[in-house]
Amino acid sequence: MDIKIYLEPIGFEFDDIEFLDLRERIAHKVHTFYKNTDFPDLTEAEIAIIGVKEDRKSVNNFGCENAPDVIRKRLYQLFPSKSDLKIIDLGNIKRGHTVEDTYFALSEVVAEMIKREIVPIIIGGSQDLTFANYRAYEKLGQIINVFAVDSRFDLGDVDTEIDAQSFLSKIILHQPNFLFNYTNIGYQTYFVDQEAIELMEKLYFDAYRLGVIKKDMEMVEPLVRNADMISVDISSVRQPDAPGNANASPNGFNGEEICQICRYAGLSDKLTSIGFYETNPSLDNNGQTSHLVAQMIWYFIEGYYSRKHDYPYKDKENYKKYYVSIKDNTHEVIFYKSKKSDRWWMEVPCAKDMKIKYERHYLVPCSYSDYETALNDDIPDRWWQVYKKLM
Q1: Helix residue spans in 124-274 (DSSP H)
Q2: What is the pLDDT of residue 353?
Q3: What is the C-alpha to C-alpha distance for residues 32 and 34, in angstroms, rounded to an integer?
Q4: What is the mean pLDDT of residues 246-254?
Q5: Do 13 and 34 contact (CB within 8 A), yes or no?
Q6: pLDDT at residue 313 is higher than 70
């Protein structure tokens, strides 16, 4: 498939990037689609950066379409953590005549990247582009888990057109449906109505308040490890750390925490795409928000190149297997512990005729604390959530 028809070069040249010295930066390591260069070769690539200058469905944050190139300049000034990066920059998705045209183009490009086992990093633009990212998996016929770092659920009104704060309801209602699970971390209760919280519970989705996550950042790792795609709304970061967003608020993750989350995302073998949305350069303070997003992407890349490649269904011989009987042998929970990374998974019962369909979902990432819960004769909540979905 010729994806070049959907893409255009980025809006600046290599010589426009300001370096403080002559040492090698990320800009020297990435094959970027500049105006006067050839389109990047996809053959050896492992990560592809894709900009989307689209904000027509933004909510109170018009101007975020200008973020991709601004964030790139900040990213390309940073030093690489590895010398052998295999990263390409495909430029920007051409702005469609309608928003739906832009969605289609993005989903086509992302689907092609995933087919080639290249991880796309999407730089928006408004967060409704998450819907286009999801549609890429529909084209591939993959049932997936979606993960959002967001202060809101973005459910909106089911009867209204899609926008940056209603895309989730469009994903849930879209047919055919390829959503297995949705996880939100960092939601702030005063931004979410009670009906939305109840709906999340009814659908067996996972939602974690900001305060719960900030108390124990390590609990994010197994949650992220279960995701196929991630959507990051920069408004989930508190305003002092990321002022370049019209929906920013005084509370949220701080810069270090959001970078930690992005590194966890990079480390996940299961994750095949990630998007960063809602940065608005026109509202930014000395480029602070763009600089933070550039560092978030840097941490994602650093995590990617530290992957252990130990997702269980690939080779169970590299795992220690633990059987835990619960409640007088009425239940048994099977745990796997990686010999490579010491990370944990647990197996949820799944009918034989459904295992192929759900092979990416009945082995659930967990933590040592979940194993301890089982040893204390109780079934972990994470296990129950997936069990209900597979019933």
Answers
A1: 129-140, 167-173, 194-202, 210-215, 220-225, 255-267
A2: 74
A3: 6
A4: 97
A5: yes
A6: no
